[in-house]
């Protein structure tokens, strides 16, 4: 992401009158959120929201390119860039497709992608250096050795970045992943998964599964040694949280439905069922791509995310080299017929039985209700679930508002969960100590109130299913009309 002074000036100078008005309204207690937010939070949320409210949308390719600009590596982080070779066997491809098909209801449409080399970044914390200290001129293997020399925990966080499935990159998330490494004493493998719309579902899921197997069973020429499943935690923010929970559901489904007893990966034979990770942990995970739950409207005043995108709005993105797709598609991430698939929208998953422990941290944001439904169902099915929600906080607040107690607490608890489930040598005893727990944190004071995770859901499963289906059907009807008038690229 471009954070150069010139880029920031171009972004913020036109916003000065808007910022002045926002500050005045906040100071006079005329803003509806004045009692919940400080001025810095108010300005940040409203500026981000104004970027989404642009009446002339920026072409998708431009948004994507801007988000992929590498800010460079310096200061308190070790980064080692790696690539996992493409496995010659087709076992991974076959087992994922089988799981997708076994979970599919109706005639969902998707294209089976090829396996490709997988790029990622090992991230660790670099202590005792200035924030502007340049990255040493070393080989990637030497960088990994330096990283490991400061690691004090067996924990490996398999990290998936956010960005609505079409933006961002491991380079844009080096600060939060290095901070996770600092707080846990472990390391993160931040995955450069394939982005939509050029690479729709299930490309990112293929890459996520490839990365997990690569940790367990290192491909040739890997820097790392095999990592035990009980030391691996899936983690991500927003769309990366979606991918984390989808990957967990994929493994559960492979173990439930696969008729195979093993699969081949780089000439290694892997026994089935597959081991589950130690945990899955999301900050504001995007669990519902239909965006059908009540909080997308009821919590809008505290969030910067735009309201649900209609098919008309999707198609109004300016024509460019990546949109619309050929053939036209009604959603950036997948065909509209796949929106209710559990590996696209984890909200649609009916069975989390046997899952590893889960951690959710949300603000009082537009995505909160979908997270509540997933957490509640999993807890009812016997999964250990830790749920935290912070009053009046927006999407991914813990990664944005480090100056707030809520931001610091949300991030710290995220890291603590990873340590507790995946940072111990004797994981089994430690996992038994964790219990399902839900907490509501009051605005500003962070005063805690216990909540019952099993009863978090704002509506029953039948209602959730009906809301998802009706929202998808409405988008499909709109898409039919627009697809007839729009040219293919």
Structure description:
This protein has 16 helices and twelve strands. It is 38% helix and 13% strand. It starts with a helix and ends with a helix. The protein is globular, with a radius of gyration of 22 Å. With 489 residues, the chain is of the alpha/beta class. Helix 2 (16-27) packs across helix 3 (39-52). The protein has helices at residues 5-12, 16-27, 39-52, 60-67, 91-103, 140-149, 174-184, 203-216, 239-257, 295-298, 311-315, 368-380, 397-400, 405-422, 427-433, 461-485; strands spanning 78-84, 118-124, 156-160, 187-192, 232-237, 262-265, 268-271, 279-283, 358-363, 385-390, 437-441, 448-451. The protein has a ten-stranded mixed beta sheet with strand order 1-2-4-3-5-8-9-10-11-12, with helices on both faces. The protein has a two-stranded antiparallel ribbon with strand order 6-7.
